[in-house]
Amino acid sequence: MEQTPRYSGPKRLKISDSSSGLNLAARIVDFIKKSERRHPGLVNARRAMKSINPINLSDLKRIVDLWADAALQLTDSDLKVMNRLTRAQERIGHAA
Question: pTM of this prediction?
């Protein structure tokens, strides 16, 4: 029986420290456009996975705890970067 390759998630966007804000925004837009083409397939693949491997409540609670702990460990620097990315996305969205 032939094994199907496992989905390893979307390719990571590489961001270098030397990228200018506009270059970074352009790369993010390009990454999103490339990902949009795969989106319907990924959504349906995820639905299929959930139907054969449902998550139970205790697992869900553990995942929520992990995310909550991660959120509580964010530094001011992390929040500034997230803010900058959000503003760049908003500018791109308004320009489109």
Answer: 0.39
